[in-house]
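Progress note, sequence design subtask.
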């Protein structure tokens, strides 16, 4: 029996999300090391380096993070990965005896309040949960739900609202219900091809 396989560049495993997160972390560090000339360039501002980090490096790690099941160990690994990235772009070694709080303070001084990597993962998970819940509710309301297909309350076990991973430098956390519903984005989205959700033309008769 196959215990692990790759599907759409994501690892599906019987061991949860750990193999996928470890593989993503390795790919992220590889991409980070390839951009060393940019990180060492003194003519590039820290703010610009952080933008490049998020666009070219951390985007690799965040691929398909909506499906992850986060444990305490995996959350620590995500925070550790983020710190390694920040230390790399700032040129700060672990042998420099500079604490992580000092590194985060330096980053905040250059870019202002921001969401850390773990918070971004949790928010994406909540938004995906809100999207799935909305689709299931519409299927129930139209009577399209088929027996054996599952229930709307089968949410992801990793869609947690814990704020244990948030740091003092982060932005003010948004309510989980607002995050899960996308601030009203999903509630106003229509399913393509459904005549009951299409805008009605003035003067047209309903079939």
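Output:
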């Amino acid at each position: 029996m196959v215990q692990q396989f790759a599907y759409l560049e994501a690892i599906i495993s019987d061991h949860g999300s750990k193999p996928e997160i470890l593989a993503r972390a390795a790919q992220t560090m590889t991409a980070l090391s390839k951009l060393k000339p940019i990180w060492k360039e003194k003519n590039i501002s820290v703010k610009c380096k952080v933008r490049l980090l998020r666009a070219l490096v951390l985007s690799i790690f965040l691929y398909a993070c909506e499906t992850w099941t986060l444990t305490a160990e995996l959350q620590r690994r995500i925070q550790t990965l983020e710190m390694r990235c920040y230390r790399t772009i700032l040129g700060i070694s672990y042998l420099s005896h500079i604490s992580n709080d000092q590194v985060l303070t330096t980053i905040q001084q250059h870019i202002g309040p921001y969401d850390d990597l773990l918070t971004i993962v949790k928010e994406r998970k909540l938004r995906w949960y809100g999207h799935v819940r909305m689709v299931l509710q519409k299927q129930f309301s139209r009577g399209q739900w088929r027996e054996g297909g599952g229930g709307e309350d089968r949410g992801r076990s990793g869609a947690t609202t814990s704020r244990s991973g948030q740091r003092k430098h982060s932005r003010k956390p948004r309510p989980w219900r607002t995050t899960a519903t996308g601030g009203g984005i999903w509630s106003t989205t229509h399913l393509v091809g459904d005549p009951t959700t299409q805008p009605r033309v003035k003067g047209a008769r309903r079939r």
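The chain is about 50% helix and 5% strand. Work on this subtask will continue into the next period as scheduled.
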